[in-house]
Design brief:
about 280 residues; 5-stranded antiparallel beta sheet; 3-stranded antiparallel beta sheet; 6 helices; SCO1664 family protein; CHP03843
């Protein structure tokens, strides 16, 4: 669906307003994103005089995965939003679980990416990333040639790297990044998260092994408290992921706080998603 056909948000003043709109509004399907591996529908949602665009992913449209229980991807998307919201970084767009035209599923606010935003990923010749960039690894660019894949040395990406380590994101690709015109970075597609085993696959290894920034340690301390049994975040996540996955989430937060460093590839799982974009 082209940008002029999308209906801009109206009457939305806070995240709570957006969540109410997504949860209570009338969903109207406008089209489908056919490039997605699961069913992804573009919708508008209206309620109480407010209207915005959103993405609706019905559980019925999820393809089975060998390592995740069937019919759980929408719940994991909602869980990723709950954790992101607790961090205060606002990386994951507002997301709810609800009934839709094709049954229960995940509904998430649509984010328009700024086409003029500086690139966050690049391929460079040589072995050095250059100022303002972090190396990821060599990439095959065809014709028997390789180039160095790099990502921006951007504090927004560094926050996302921490969030992905927390939620054990198994599929962080470049196409999942939506830099907005206001300078904020949004990240989408979090269905392959929260596995109890180490599944971290990402393009953003540029800080691997380095000390975590102070703000990240503060956020991890907050998450540690909010994941205690009976705390609001833990209570919400109990409805979305399994007990073993919740225990593994708590353990990852504790490990990150204890080491105070960005994680490094484990060697037991491919560290880079494919395709990378």
């Amino acid at each position: 669906m082209s940008a002029p056909e999308r209906i801009p948000p109206r009457g939305l003043t806070a995240t709570a307003d957006v969540l109410e709109l997504l949860a209570e509004g009338e969903l109207t399907v406008r089209g489908q994103i056919r490039e997605a591996s699961n069913a992804v529908l573009l919708c508008s949602v209206s309620h109480g005089g407010a209207e915005t665009d959103c993405v609706y992913k019905p559980v019925a449209g999820e393809r089975p995965l060998w390592d995740f229980p069937d019919g759980t991807l929408a719940q994991r998307e909602a869980a990723a939003y709950a954790v992101s919201d607790t961090t205060g970084w606002g990386l994951v767009p507002p997301t709810v679980l609800r009934e839709g035209p094709y049954g229960p599923g995940m509904v998430q606010q649509w984010i328009d990416a700024d086409p003029s935003a500086p690139p966050l990923l690049s391929l460079v010749d040589g072995d050095e990333p250059g100022d303002g960039w972090r190396p990821v690894g060599r990439a095959d660019v065809g014709g028997g040639r390789t180039a160095l894949l790099v990502h921006a040395d951007d504090p927004r990406l560094r926050r996302l790297a921490v969030l992905d380590a927390v939620i054990n994101n198994g599929d962080r690709k470049g196409g999942h990044l939506l830099p907005a015109a206001d300078g904020r970075l949004h990240a989408i597609d979090h269905g392959v998260t929260f596995h109890a085993d180490d599944k971290l696959r990402t393009l953003f290894w540029g800080w691997a092994g380095e000390p975590l920034p102070g703000e990240a340690l503060d956020v991890l301390a907050r998450l540690d408290a909010e994941l205690a049994p009976g705390a609001p975040l833990a209570t919400r996540l109990e409805q979305l992921i399994t007990p073993a996955e919740l225990d593994a989430l708590r353990a990852r937060v504790v490990t990150l706080r204890t080491t105070s460093r960005h994680p490094e590839p484990s060697g037991a799982w491919p560290p880079i998603p494919w395709p990378p974009v």
